Amino acid sequence: MTPNALIDEVKTRFLPLLVTDPNRLDNLLRQALRTYQDRAGVLRNIDRETAEFDRPTDALELVTASDANGNYVECKEFRRDDGSVYWRMLTDCRHVAPFRICYLLHLAELDLMVGELPRGIVSLLGDYLECLIDIE
């Protein structure tokens, strides 16, 4: 479900809907996404074959990294001369690819039109958004 689909679903809970300004509704949706991000967060895992790669565009913060055997691998964030950000795992001979990286998803920057909300948060996020609209 996209964030805009969620807001459309929540709007049907109100008869009549008093908050009709699309910009205000988008702001309330962003507020709900930020609140969920700050209080609970969503973890995402990715696997990489190499020890250095661009930071995912939907990453808020790196959580942890491990190798194919489940061993902890130190991973750090670096900035290139052009300003782009990448993550590098500080590996040694004990570490085996592929590497699993766990990071926090940047919900507040999710594209409202095409971004996909994790299924596990849709219900709670919708209820919170309903409360925010009701308070308005």
Strand content: 25-35%
In which order are the strands of the major sheet placed? Answer: 1-6-3
Q: Could you tell me how far the N terminus lies from the C terminus, measured between alpha carbons in angstroms?
A: 24 Å
Query: What portion of residues is helical?
Result: 25-40%
Q: Uncertain segments of ≥5 residues (pLDDT<50)?
A: none
> Secondary-structure element sequence?
HHEEEEEEH
How many strands, which pairing sense, and closed or not: the largest β-sheet? 3 strands, antiparallel
Q: Per the principal axes of the C-alpha atoms, what is the gross shape?
A: elongated
Mean pLDDT comes to: 95
| Structural Rg | 19 Å
Which oligomeric state applies? single chain
Structural class: alpha+beta
Number of strands: 6
Describe the structure.
- Strand 4 and strand 5 (85-90) form a beta hairpin.
- Helices cover 30% and strands 26% of the residues.
- The chain is α+β, with helices and mostly antiparallel strands and 136 residues long.
